[in-house]
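Hi there, hope your week has been kind to you so far. It would help a lot if you went through both lines with me. No rush at all, and the record is pasted right below:

***
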Amino acid sequence: MTGASADERFEALRTWLAAHLPAPLTEIAPASNDASFRRYFRISLARTVAVPDRDAQAGTLIAVDAPPPREDCRPYVAVARLLCDSGVHAPAVLASDLERGFLLVTDLGTRTYLDALDGASAPKLYGEACAALLRLQSASREGVLPPYDETLLRRELNLFPDWYVARHLGANLTDAQRATLESTFRLVLDNNLAQPRVFVHRDYHSRNLMVSEPNPGVLDFQDAVYGPITYDLVSLLRDAYIEWDEEQQLDWAVRYWERARDAALPVRADFADFWRDFEWMGVQRQLKVLGIFARLSHRDGKHAYLDDMPRVMRYLRGACVRYRELAPLLSLLDGIEKRQPVVGYTF
């Protein structure tokens, strides 16, 4: 979006807000950065107002600018309602202009999980994040959200060779390397598609979870789908923005798995099988995220995401070391990044 068009949309948004705010506006300021073309503004009101359908008062609201045709507000509105109906704390949509891409929603606060997490706070925050995830998954119904099918999963995987390998590393894969990547993609997809399916937020991590009451507040859910049950847990525990040692990941994963079984969710009966699904789902996500971060930098000029790539690569390499079937992918990574080979399998 050019500066002129952004300014024009901002003025149009202010005009639209004047007709929909429940109290006079005293201040409007940027609310957050986003990896998409959406912009968020925090609206300060002259007085607190009642929040419809909620036993709450608010002195601030959030305005969303989602410029068509790059963004579509309809999924946001639909998934916001689905989350709220599932007992998950998501923004309530107070007003919308879907044709122009304007929304007015409730404000979940300014403190993200990423801001709040440390060794002392993590057990409580992750416990509450898993409880919210279980509520969402327990409400799952086929046919409500788009399927996280092979076409979409593969499109995401292709971000890795297109943006990370070719654009970011400037590497040209040999025919043998392309064959290795394709055979690995097939193995990963077969695992992902065989997993039980539930509602999937698709970006359930520390920058999209807000410390709020009730906790957590959940953001950035408009790309939700119906897909593999381990996907959101991988997003949460192998977060691109904050890292915990594997012993801690295992502890939180076991706690989630036990609660999921108690809730009659379709997790694997044996935790070892569930953990394998978790790790293989992680491989798909980590390959995708490396491609997305490269694209954000090289196409969109958002270079800060490059700082998080090493963390994502550590997750990916860790899984490749543990599974013999992923050894060819590890060798490919060694080749394109010119590292010494690493050997060691546990499964």
